[in-house]
Amino acid sequence: MSTKDYYAILGVDRDASAEAIKKAYRRRAMKVHPDVAQDDAGAADKFKELSEAYEVLSDPNKRAIFDRGGDPRHANGAGAGFSGFGGGFAGGFDFTNLVDAMFGTQSGRGGPRSRVRRGQDALVRADLELHEAVFGVTKPIKVDTAVVCPKCTGSGGEPGSEPVTCPTCDGQGEILQIQRSFLGDIRTSQMCPNCRGYGTILPRPCSECSGEGRVRSRRNISVRIPAGVATGNRIHLEAQGEVGPGGGPAGDLYVEINVLPHETFRREGDNLEVVVKLPMTAAALGTTVDLATLEAEWENSAVEDRTVAVEVPAGTQSGTRISIKERGVPKLRGGGRGDLGVTFLVQTPTRLDDHQRDLLRQLAESRDEINPEAIAHKGKGGLLGWLQDRLS
């Protein structure tokens, strides 16, 4: 019968889960490990006792023996305790499990790894004209990614050849190393350097892909861009990215949108903005102008949608903005569209003949504006600054 209370040594309850036991060991081992607690003369003994407790409680069979009052160190004829610890499990102490518990790593024992793995995701950028982003488009995209090797079809070997078992690791993908220390025999495993952990080697690697099972290639795909996308939006295409090593499944492809500037319209969220130049007389008297919309650049639009009649009220000033409902950008999520904002820029004539100049002089005299009083405009940022922002 064991005289040690392994639960008390680890500081866990008797019904503690395997994960709780691992966490308790990791927490305490980091404090009493001889390399950490160098000022503690008894650190080696504490660490040995702690490791012994973890070795028992992390093994379901040994833990069951201990819970029944037996001595798990002598179960099934196992020697006299931890080799090198002054008693314990015969045949040496496998330190791999304790390293895993202390540092949360996988120190080998994973077996050979597969040559077939999922490929990485890929990212490409697509430039769109404004009307393509607003109304949607199916866009051809060129993608440079890895594809399955056409010669070996992903196997990595020359046609007709087969992988052979690695003679260095005997197909395990890892090799075992044993080192002597004050803790006993420490056994660790590392990736086999000959087969790189695969457990097999390719006697005749494919000359086309050098054993990778994939090659670089350019391909063309068609991407459906939904209406209402903006710069920075990404379209997700499943399994259109890089093919994985060994011809493994492809990753995903992300198409990032970049909307090019437009010479007439500017987008602000779901709204479109446009500046319309008006003659001074039209602004003063009022008029109706036919404005070409963005639909005029979209071949699928209805003819009646390609222009809109804009009412200009009499006395319209530069900077006046009116909003035309539902003529902006379709909402990417949800129905409806934004608005079309029309800002007027009133233009003063610069070339006048004598008759026109005389008419304007008569108008100015009738309005007592021959020598008007200069009144400074007051407002946030000033009108000129506001207009510059609108026209930039």
UniProtKB/TrEMBL annotation:
<comment type="function">
    <text>Participates actively in the response to hyperosmotic and heat shock by preventing the aggregation of stress-denatured proteins and by disaggregating proteins, also in an autonomous, DnaK-independent fashion. Unfolded proteins bind initially to DnaJ; upon interaction with the DnaJ-bound protein, DnaK hydrolyzes its bound ATP, resulting in the formation of a stable complex. GrpE releases ADP from DnaK; ATP binding to DnaK triggers the release of the substrate protein, thus completing the reaction cycle.</text>
</comment>
<feature type="repeat" description="CXXCXGXG motif">
    <location>
        <begin position="166"/>
        <end position="173"/>
    </location>
</feature>
<comment type="subunit">
    <text>Homodimer.</text>
</comment>
<dbReference type="GO" id="GO:0031072">
    <property type="term" value="F:heat shock protein binding"/>
</dbReference>
<dbReference type="GO" id="GO:0005737">
    <property type="term" value="C:cytoplasm"/>
</dbReference>
<dbReference type="Pfam" id="PF00226">
    <property type="entry name" value="DnaJ"/>
</dbReference>
<dbReference type="InterPro" id="IPR008971">
    <property type="entry name" value="HSP40/DnaJ_pept-bd"/>
</dbReference>
<dbReference type="InterPro" id="IPR036869">
    <property type="entry name" value="J_dom_sf"/>
</dbReference>
<feature type="repeat" description="CXXCXGXG motif">
    <location>
        <begin position="192"/>
        <end position="199"/>
    </location>
</feature>
<feature type="binding site">
    <location>
        <position position="152"/>
    </location>
    <ligand>
        <name>Zn(2+) 1</name>
    </ligand>
</feature>
<feature type="repeat" description="CXXCXGXG motif">
    <location>
        <begin position="206"/>
        <end position="213"/>
    </location>
</feature>
<comment type="similarity">
    <text>Belongs to the DnaJ family.</text>
</comment>
<feature type="binding site">
    <location>
        <position position="195"/>
    </location>
    <ligand>
        <name>Zn(2+) 2</name>
    </ligand>
</feature>
<keyword id="KW-0963">Cytoplasm</keyword>
<dbReference type="InterPro" id="IPR012724">
    <property type="entry name" value="DnaJ"/>
</dbReference>
<feature type="domain" description="CR-type">
    <location>
        <begin position="136"/>
        <end position="218"/>
    </location>
</feature>
<keyword id="KW-0479">Metal-binding</keyword>
<dbReference type="InterPro" id="IPR018253">
    <property type="entry name" value="DnaJ_domain_CS"/>
</dbReference>
<feature type="binding site">
    <location>
        <position position="169"/>
    </location>
    <ligand>
        <name>Zn(2+) 2</name>
    </ligand>
</feature>
<dbReference type="InterPro" id="IPR036410">
    <property type="entry name" value="HSP_DnaJ_Cys-rich_dom_sf"/>
</dbReference>
<keyword id="KW-0863">Zinc-finger</keyword>
<dbReference type="Pfam" id="PF01556">
    <property type="entry name" value="DnaJ_C"/>
</dbReference>
<feature type="repeat" description="CXXCXGXG motif">
    <location>
        <begin position="149"/>
        <end position="156"/>
    </location>
</feature>
<dbReference type="GO" id="GO:0005524">
    <property type="term" value="F:ATP binding"/>
</dbReference>
<dbReference type="GO" id="GO:0051082">
    <property type="term" value="F:unfolded protein binding"/>
</dbReference>
<feature type="domain" description="J">
    <location>
        <begin position="5"/>
        <end position="70"/>
    </location>
</feature>
<dbReference type="InterPro" id="IPR001623">
    <property type="entry name" value="DnaJ_domain"/>
</dbReference>
<feature type="binding site">
    <location>
        <position position="149"/>
    </location>
    <ligand>
        <name>Zn(2+) 1</name>
    </ligand>
</feature>
<dbReference type="InterPro" id="IPR001305">
    <property type="entry name" value="HSP_DnaJ_Cys-rich_dom"/>
</dbReference>
<keyword id="KW-0346">Stress response</keyword>
<feature type="binding site">
    <location>
        <position position="206"/>
    </location>
    <ligand>
        <name>Zn(2+) 1</name>
    </ligand>
</feature>
<keyword id="KW-0235">DNA replication</keyword>
<dbReference type="InterPro" id="IPR002939">
    <property type="entry name" value="DnaJ_C"/>
</dbReference>
<dbReference type="GO" id="GO:0008270">
    <property type="term" value="F:zinc ion binding"/>
</dbReference>
<keyword id="KW-0143">Chaperone</keyword>
<feature type="binding site">
    <location>
        <position position="192"/>
    </location>
    <ligand>
        <name>Zn(2+) 2</name>
    </ligand>
</feature>
<protein>
    <recommendedName>
        <fullName>Chaperone protein DnaJ</fullName>
    </recommendedName>
</protein>
<feature type="zinc finger region" description="CR-type">
    <location>
        <begin position="136"/>
        <end position="218"/>
    </location>
</feature>
<feature type="binding site">
    <location>
        <position position="166"/>
    </location>
    <ligand>
        <name>Zn(2+) 2</name>
    </ligand>
</feature>
<dbReference type="GO" id="GO:0042026">
    <property type="term" value="P:protein refolding"/>
</dbReference>
<dbReference type="Pfam" id="PF00684">
    <property type="entry name" value="DnaJ_CXXCXGXG"/>
</dbReference>
<keyword id="KW-0862">Zinc</keyword>
